[in-house]
Structures are given as structure tokens and as C-alpha cells.
Design goal:
The chain is α/β, with parallel strands linked by helices and 392 residues long. The protein folds into two domains: 141 residues, Aspartate Aminotransferase, domain 1, CATH 3.90.1150.10; 237 residues, 3-Layer(aba) Sandwich (Aspartate Aminotransferase, domain 2), CATH 3.40.640.10. The chain is built from twelve helices and 13 strands. The strands form three sheets. It has a seven-stranded mixed β-sheet, sandwiched between helices. A four-stranded antiparallel β-sheet has the order 9-10-13-12, with helices on one face. The protein is globular. The relative contact order is 0.16. The structure holds pyridoxal-5'-phosphate.
Length: 392
């Protein structure tokens, strides 16, 4: 059976070009980049190139890039650094729709005596800027707002927010894990102090990430030990994966146009067709300001998990809008924050595309999904009830 992979916001396939560049790093270049001999130097050179490549995609300086083990570590490092570097400030501002990497850490900090403001979003997943600005104070150490939401695809005006945050004397961090490679980023022209990214969301391997730290930003390391990464992150570098991340960043720059034209067109065709062929369905997110690859679509009166299982029978991989943690099928915190009604939040599917997808992939979903939803609705007491209420 052919795999139709439409879950690229969860993770991506390692691109061939990226894998190719990793192989020497896993074989011949086995020296420790910190060593003072030719094997060390040989390993250090591609590491330096990777740093330049990541910096170049972001419009940053190589020395502003810190390599980490993942997007989560980058997020934790940024928040931790801002709090340690500004010990008198005990207030954090973030949003209600952050990835658990930010959300869970902030919830933990509340237990440790910090005050956290979670800024709400509207029905389209757009952040309430007035609430954010009204909560800025002298006590605010850091404001962390994601660049783009991984579920709805909604893009936040982080550059505008960063300016206001800076003027108020706080540090601004953005989790740009979903934005990097999909939207233009030029940190040289922005007021953003720190930015997180993750390799496996842009066709590099899992287990590598980076944190941009603007030159001059006060910083305190999260991992302490050796002097790697200019003393900002101890631990021998994940050498081959960092090299892969560097190549993935040049690839992302090369493919950004395709992402915003061909991939976006595939997404739009998928969305338009599903809305037309499946009644009681709607798209979530800010349609004017959205990632080009993401489609969050709700089918009322069906269970997302059942849809996923049935699509899987056709080789289709997507994800649902539920947090299956603790065995409950609670709609995700993102859909709840957006106020999506329960009957629809439960039947929400996220399709996330990439440069790997083809017209054929989209055709398959368009062929299969209307039948799947129809079948599930025939078995749904909620659907029967809703139709009866409408006299159908
Ligand atoms: C995937 C993701 C992360 C976590 O990155 P990891 O490398 O898996 O730790 C953080 N934020 C967002 C928005 C993500 O989509």
C-alpha cells in the first residue's frame, strides 16, 4: 500500500540531500570538534558551516546560533535563560495555544512562584493583542509567543509584538518550530531576542534543534558542563544531526517558494474539495494568515480517532485534534482555546503537507474521505440526533 503522508507538522521525512550530507559525519568525521588535532579540526569545519547555514536562513549571525537537542530544549533554554538573567522579575506572558514545550514549562513555573499570563485567542486562533500589551509590566521577564500554531496553522504577528515587548523592557522569545522554512524570517531587522527551531520539522533528523539568541541578550545556560557552544550549552555536539540541520536550512531556503505555491495549492485544493463534498464541515484557523501547508478541518458529529483509523486503511497519515493523554479524548487545548464547539472539535483532523506531497496524494484523500465520514455518521447517535432536530 502506498503511504500518503500528511502529518508533516508532527515530523518530516529526512530529505535525500540532507541524509547524503550526514553520512561522512557518521563515518569519517568521527573526531571531537573540541579536540586540538586534525581529526578535531576536520569535524569542526562542517559544524561551523552548519552554524552559518542556519544563521543565513534566519538573517542572523553564526555566533547567535546555539545548537540544542530539539525544539523543546530550545524553548526551555530560552525561558530559563530569561528568568535566571532577570532574577528580580517574576512574571511571564505566553498564549493559551502554545506547544506543550512552552505551556507545560510555564505551568511548572507557576508552581515555583512565577506568575504566568496566558493570552487568549479568538475563534480563528488569533491572539488578543490588547490583553497581551495590557499585561506587560516592569515585573515581566519574558514574553513567549509562537510564530505559527502547529494545529491551526495561524501565524502570529510576532515581529510587531516583539517591538512592544522590547519597549516594555522584557525579553521576547518565539517558538518558530512550525514557521521556519515556511515563512520569511529576517531576524536582523526584528526586535526578537530568541527564536526556537527544530530539525525534524524541516526534513532534518529528530533530536536536533537550534536556539537563536540575539547578540547582547543576557543568557544563562540550561546544561552546564564543558565549554561547547561558547559555554552556552555543555555536551558534545550531535555532530551529524547538526550538519544535517544546516543542509536542511539551505534546502528550506531553496524550497520556500515551492512551499508557498505548489504545496499551498495542494492544501487549498484538498480543503476546497472536502468542504464541498462533506456537509457539516468547516476549516479552522485564520484563513488570511496561515501556514501554507496546514489544514485543520472539523467534521461535526464524528470522532477524529475513528477517522484516522479508517484513513489509515487507505495509507493516509494525518492527525486529530485530540490530546489522547490519560486515555481521554478531550479536544486539544488549542481547539478549546479557540472555542470550537465540542461536537466539531472531536471530529477535527489536521492535514499537514510538505514538498514531498503530490497531486496523487491529494486525489486519494479527496476520493476516500467523504465515504469515511458518511459511514461514521451513519453509526453516530449524535449525527442522528442533530439531523432529527433539523427535521432531516
Ligand atoms: C514539534 C514542535 C515542538 C517540539 O519540537 P521537538 O524537536 O519535537 O522537541 C515545539 N513547538 C512546536 C510549535 C512544534 O510544532
Amino acid at each position: 500500500m502506498r503511504t500518503i503522508y500528511l502529518d508533516n507538522n508532527a515530523t518530516t521525512r529526512i530529505a535525500d540531500e540532507v541524509l547524503e550530507e550526514m553520512i561522512p559525519a557518521l563515518t569519517n568525521l568521527y573526531g571531537n570538534p573540541s579536540s586540538m588535532h586534525h581529526k578535531g579540526a576536520e569535524a569542526g569545519a562542517p559544524l561551523a558551516l552548519a552554524r552559518e547555514r542556519v544563521a543565513s536562513l534566519l538573517g542572523a549571525l553564526p555566533e547567535e546560533i546555539l545548537f540544542t537537542s530539539c525544539g523543546t530544549e530550545s524553548d526551555s533554554t530560552a525561558i530559563h535563560a530569561a528568568l535566571i538573567a532577570n532574577p528580580d522579575k517574576k512574571h511571564i506572558i505566553t498564549t493559551m495555544v502554545e506547544h506543550p514545550a512552552v505551556k507545560t514549562y510555564c505551568e511548572d513555573l507557576e508552581k515555583k512562584g512565577y506568575r504566568v499570563t496566558y493570552v487568549p485567542v479568538d475563534r480563528k486562533g488569533r491572539i488578543d493583542l490588547n490583553t497581551l500589551y495590557a499585561n506587560l509590566s516592569k515585573d515581566t521577564a519574558i514574553v513567549s509567543v509562537m510564530w505559527a500554531n502547529n494545529e491551526s496553522g495561524t501565524i502570529f504577528p510576532v515581529e510587531e509584538i516583539a517591538k512592544k515587548v522590547k519597549a516594555a523592557g522584557a525579553v521576547f522569545h518565539t517558538d518558530a518550530v512550525q514557521a521556519v522554512g515556511k515563512v520569511d524570517i529576517n531576524l536582523a531587522d526584528s526586535a526578537i531576542d530568541m527564536l526556537s527551531l527544530s530539525g525534524h520539522k524541516l526534513h532534518a533528523p529528530k533530536g536536533v534543534g537550534a536556539l537563536y539568541i540575539r547578540k547582547g541578550t543576557r543568557f544563562a545556560p540550561f546544561l552546564m558542563g564543558g565549554h561547547q557552544e561558547m559555554g552556552r550549552r555543555a555536551g558534545t555536539e550531535n555532530h551529524s544531526s547538526i550538519i544535517a540541520l544546516g543542509r536542511a536550512c539551505t534546502l528550506a531556503a531553496e524550497k520556500m517558494d515551492e512551499e508557498n505555491t505548489r504545496v499551498k495549492d495542494l492544501r487549498d485544493r484538498l480543503e476546497k474539495s472536502l468542504l464541498e463534498s462533506i456537509p457539516n464541515s468547516f476549516v479552522n484557523g485564520d484563513l488570511e494568515n496561515r501556514l501554507p501547508n496546514t489544514c485543520s478541518i472539523s467534521f461535526e458529529y464524528v470522532e477524529g480517532e475513528s477517522i484516522l483509523l479508517m484513513m489509515n486503511e487507505f495509507g493516509i497519515c494525518a492527525s486529530s485534534g485530540s490530546a489522547c493523554t490519560s486515555g481521554s479524548l478531550e479536544p486539544s487545548h488549542v481547539l478549546r482555546a479557540m472555542g470550537i464547539p465540542f461536537t466539531a472539535a472531536h471530529g477535527t483532523i489536521r492535514f499537514s503537507l510538505s514538498i514531498d506531497n503530490t497531486d496523487e496524494d491529494i486525489d486519494t484523500v479527496i476520493e476516500c474521505l467523504p465515504g469515511i465520514i458518511h459511514t461514521l455518521r451513519q453509526m453516530s447517535p449524535f449525527w442522528a440526533e442533530a439531523m432529527a432536530a433539523q427535521g432531516k
